[in-house]
Amino acid sequence: MIASIGNAVVWGMNTFLQFHAGLRRSEGGFGLSPLEVGMVFGIATVFGALSNVVWGAVSDRTNSRHGKRKPFMYIFPPLVLVTLWMASKVDVLFGISAVFWTFLVMMVVKGILHNGANVPYSTVIPEVVTPDKRVMASQLSAFVQGIGFAAGAVVPAFLFEAFDDFGIPFIVAGVIMVILYLVSSTAVPASAKPVKVESILQSMKATLRNRNFMVFEAAQFFWTLGLNIVIFVLPFLAQDVIGILDESVFGWFFVSFLLIAGAFMLGMNFLMQKRRVEKKRTLLISLVITAISLPFVGFIGTPAFSFMPIIVQVYLFGSIVFAGLVGIFIFPYAIMMGLIDYSSGSEGAYNGTNGTVLGFAAIPAGPIGGLLIYLGYPYVGIVGALLFVASIAVMLRVHVPEHLFEKRDGGKHEE
Question: How remote is the C-alpha of 1 from its chain's centroid?
């Protein structure tokens, strides 16, 4: 599970790439507009989403003396390291005149290679964890990923202060991923096998026939799209509204919000240890809080809140948003595991489909975010809130199997 930290560190570095790409060339950045940056991340995500299903099916069929999943954990992280560094240096390696196209190509390649490591790795969890411990394992995985995202901001914040070379933090992030994947691979037995192996088309059909699962995926699509729009807009909000133009300053700004999110996650995990928490209901509450708070974030820096300093607006409304997002980080994977029909598909098939839906939700986030920035930040909050409202409406139709939340003492079930 420790490889989750490596994944999260590398994913967290995307925010710094986005911040750097949006800086003017006179400030040392790539000089791309928000819409251009959005197109790069959107197109890259298209290829990443498609590769999710492919890597899930390919790893199901892999036969080696190291098993089905380990070869991917060995081979792909070093390749991610190289492409991550190249993506951070495209202006130097290929010239500033072609920066849009070279940045696009490197982000596409990096995304495909990262999924080549992550999809087989994430499939290992249900294969090595007994069914009665999978919910607990998924919650722990979400907590570990939260630690990783914090590390993905803290490490570069230090490094950007220590080094003038923009590429060094990305090398360090890649090395962390390689090391943690190697450590995690030692806990994966070569004998680990999927419950069932299907062809790629059969894998897709198996999950599509599970109506309850697909309704849940539809709800997840809406809130993931809203979440990705907010994350995409954050670096530009820091530049345009707060006036942050330095990577290290942005790093500490990013860290501060991750610490706030981490505090909320610790509180939620503590609550879950002390009492029974209804996952579906708590997730819905999280979605409602996020939907209510997002419009306030969109109006940061406008005359509507001129009576408050901008920094107070940022942390007041931002903290409320992150309080809502905690449930989105903790519960969806646990719920998804309870919706798998093992008689029709393997964990690899369902994980692949879930990853594909998440990937497709991220595809329009960049272009939409870039367009909304052009229209004005209030539109970001309004559109984001509408997406979360849509996710609530769909999630209400999802039946969460009672066995997923069964008490160990044989008590009553909850939905």
Answer: 16
Residue entry with tokens 């503590």: 270
N-terminal to C-terminal alpha carbon distance within the chain: 27
With a CB cutoff of 8 Å and minimum separation 6, the contacts of 119 are: 51, 52, 55, 56, 59, 72, 348, 351, 352, 355
For 51, the enclosing helix (H) or strand (E) is: helix 34-61
Asked if residue 414 is part of any domain, the answer here is no
Which residues, 6+ apart, have CB-to-CB distance to 412 below 8 Å? none
pLDDT tens digits for range 1-34: 677 777 778 887 888 899 999 998 888 899 999 9
304 domain residue, yes or no: yes
C-beta separation of 42 from 367 below 8 A:
yes
Contact by Cβ (8 Å): 153, 10: no
The answer to whether residues 367 and 38 touch, using CB atoms and an 8 Å cutoff, is: yes
- Residue 163 resides in a domain: yes
Instruction: Name the token pair of 54.
Output: 């492919």
Number of domains forming the structure of the chain: 1
Which residues have a Cβ under 8 Å from the Cβ of 256 and sit 6 or more positions away? 315
Q: Which residue is associated with the tokens 């999950």?
A: 207
pLDDT 10s digits, 337-380: 777 776 666 666 677 677 778 778 888 998 999 999 989 999 99
Helix axes 211-237, 310-330, angle to 10 degrees: 160
The answer to whether 346 touches 197, Cβ cutoff 8 Å, is yes
Residue 177 in tokens: 């991923």
**Helix pair angle (134-162, 3-22), 10° resolution:** 40
CA distances from 410 to 163, 298, 405 (A): 57, 47, 11
The answer to whether 29 and 91 have CB atoms below 8 angstroms apart is: no
Q: Establish if 301 belongs to a structural domain.
A: yes
Alpha carbon distance 372, 67 (integer Å) = 47
Decide if pLDDT at 221 tops 70: yes
Residue 342 has a CB neighbour count (10 Å cut-off) of 12
In 10 A of CB 2, how many CB atoms?
Answer: 14
Token pair 């607990």 is at which residue? Answer: 136
User: What residue numbers bound the domain in which 396 lies?
Assistant: 3-405
The burial of 365, by beta-carbon neighbours within 10 Å (0-12 exposed, 13-18 middle, 19 or more buried), is given as buried
CATH number, domain at 95? 1.20.1250.20
The C-alpha atoms of residue 3 and residue 1 are separated, in whole angstroms, by: 5
Task: Please give the model's pTM, rounded to 2 decimal places.
Answer: 0.75
Q: Helix H segments across 89-240?
A: 90-93, 99-128, 134-162, 168-185, 200-208, 211-237
